[in-house]
Amino acid sequence: MTKKLEDGKYVDMTADEIQDLENLKNYHHNNMDILMGELRRKRDYLLVETDWTANSDVTMSAEMKEYRQKLRDATEGLDTVEKVKAYEFPTEVKK
Q1: How far is Cα 55 from Cα 53, in angstroms, rounded to an integer?
Q2: What is the model's pTM?
Q3: Are the C-beta atoms of residues 24 and 13 closer than 8 Å to each other?
Q4: Would you write out the chain's pLDDT as a tens digit for each of its 95 residues?
């Protein structure tokens, strides 16, 4: 049985509470705005991880330029939940 914390104690959830929780999970896993937000956050993190390669005193390799461009283009054409879920990030380039 699924439990919830209530007044400092774990108690069984009602069937309606369990259904509401499942509905919320399904909403989250099938909501385009949420999925795109998650994708953008991961993309942005990956770009930040390689920002140092764009410093003026560093020569960026062609592979790194291509990798970063693929990251910037990550959201192009992702117009359905299925496409967002199926998206695979490009393989990270060795720094």
Answers
A1: 6
A2: 0.69
A3: no
A4: 788 899 999 999 898 888 888 877 777 777 888 899 999 999 999 999 999 998 989 899 999 999 999 999 999 999 999 999 999 999 998 76
